[in-house]
Amino acid sequence: MKKYLLALLLLFAFPNALLAKGGAVTAADPRAAEAGREILRKGGSAADAAVAMMLALSVVEPQSSGIGGGGFMVHNDGRTNAVATIDGREVAPSSANPRLFLDASGTPMSYVDAFPGGRSIGVPGNIALAARASARWGKLRWSALFQPAIRLAENGYQVTPRLADTLSRLKPLWSDFPAAQAIYWQEGRPKQVGDTVKNPALAALLRNVAAKGPKAFYSGQNATAIIAAAGHSKRNPTIITRRDIAAYRAIDRAAVCTTYRQYRLCGMGPPSSGATTVFQILGMLERFDLKALGKDNPQSWHLIAEAMRLGYADREKYLGDPGFVAVPVAGLLDKSYIASRSALISADRSLGTYEAGTPPGAQPRTAAISGEVSGTTHFVAVDGTGDIASMTSTVEGPFGSQLIANGYVLNNELTDFTFAPEKDGAPVANRVEPGKRPLSSMSPTIVYGPDGKPVFAAGAAGGKTIIMQVAKILIAHLDWGLSAQEAIAAPNIYFAGDAVLVEPGTALAAMQSQLAGFGHTVVTGRMSSKANAAERTANGWQGAADPRSEGVALGE
């Protein structure tokens, strides 16, 4: 009875959070979270549950992620506490080259012109990532992981407010995308909240891949569908070949880890910029007593803003696909280098100008701004043995390229490359090249306590704001002692040009004048926020979901 009352109390106090001794899942859509819980209840591992959630999100959150895109997974082994990562980032086809996003005059295209259609599609990586995770850490049969998603696609699901809003905003664009209309419109208009979406083509594909394995995705009829969608698009048709698709591989990469106060933090290395930049931001703040300053002190947020601007400056100059450019990860996270960057931060005055530094081992490089738009999704699964899967998945922008193959959305990830291949006569690290993986801000993270055991896992969606969302969540939890749920709900901060951008209607927005007193130009503005996390408590693992989203946490 006491356990029941405690669970009931927690449910009412934290509707987006739930305690569980046997495991927990959290995702940006309740139906995906339920898919993960179903897999845990059948004896599946955290990796199994994460794969099931990724597949379910392909159906119910098509605007954000799915099998037509890619992702990154960070995994903890519950027996050994060893951390590993899998890179399922999309790959530029062989037809891509550094001029991909330049117009006839050699000028970079606008994003609006670049993203719709075939030009922006990278070879999808999520199915390969799922297969690799299942092989390394799975307990259930591969086919079992597909069943929740197949049911959702076949039986149908109701449109949520977030999906309906996205469909409404894309209405003017979809005259050129009849395949998307066929699924998500009815009676000549986008489907609305409560309308039902059925996707028999996707159900059939999922059933085929479940039965035959990942080769059914990367060859045969599905490869033909990808090639046709990209090549016959009314917007920006492009060539993707069977060889491009068949050659795709998910890559096991070494986790990028660092220390912050008494904690060890691990995340995804390049082509993700997430771990490197998040850890830089935290490292620059380590000399300041953020705990004593507290979350309600404008000085805390001033310091966070300064570290943020310096961290992103390094990101834009040095990060890219390590298969194509030398990325000085060790140098960027070198404690002496970070201390030198931190020394630029004044406790009472903004720096004003934020330029990249020169970390140890860095090659001469030109800084250039890359673009990412709000999209993506994050989910976390923890099983009863202590395995943890923290995964971020994406098709990039809302509905990716807007193109459909076998019922699923094809990504527009190639727009994450820097459009201009050179700057000041030097090549840009994140330029387009065939076979290259574009830079990403996805930041799946696992935190280990002084005892070496995991205590926290988190990630977020929202383009380049992902890095700052995750950094904020970690500061709020590790420094300010907020629960995972409270840490996610804490105000968001980012930047817009030379201004510091703060979330309207929050305690942080109320500090606008005080932040201006430090020399910042401060503006309020809506930021995409869709984070998910889980924390270890005395009573088990507790999941948390962003109250700004439709996400939930479920326990097992």
Note down, in words, how this protein is organized:
The chain is an alpha+beta fold and 556 residues long. The chain has a domain at 19-69 and 89-252 and 389-427. 34% of the residues lie in helices and 19% in strands. The protein has 20 helices and 25 strands. The strands form seven sheets. It has a seven-stranded antiparallel beta sheet. A seven-stranded antiparallel beta sheet has the order 9-4-3-13-12-2-25, covered by helices on one side. Strands 20-21-22 form a three-stranded mixed beta sheet. Helix 3 packs parallel to helix 6 (147-155), helix 6 (147-155) runs antiparallel to helix 9 (200-212) and helix 13 packs across helix 17. It is globular. The model is unreliable at 1-20 (pLDDT under 50).
Short description:
The protein has 20 helices and 25 strands. The chain has 556 residues and is an alpha+beta fold.
What topology emerges from the helices and strands here?
Layout: H1 2-13, E1 18-20, E2 24-27, H2 30-41, H3 46-60, E3 70-76, E4 83-88, H4 111-114, H5 126-137, H6 147-155, E5 157-158, H7 161-170, H8 178-184, E6 185-186, E7 189-190, E8 196-197, H9 200-212, H10 215-218, H11 220-231, H12 242-246, E9 251-253, E10 256-260, E11 263-267, H13 274-285, H14 290-293, H15 298-318, H16 329-332, H17 335-342, E12 377-382, E13 388-394, E14 404-405, E15 408-409, E16 422-423, E17 426-427, E18 445-448, E19 454-461, H18 465-478, H19 484-489, E20 493-496, E21 499-502, H20 512-517, E22 521-524, E23 530-537, E24 540-545, E25 552-555
Helix pairs in contact: 2-3, 3-5, 3-6, 6-9, 13-15, 13-17, 13-18
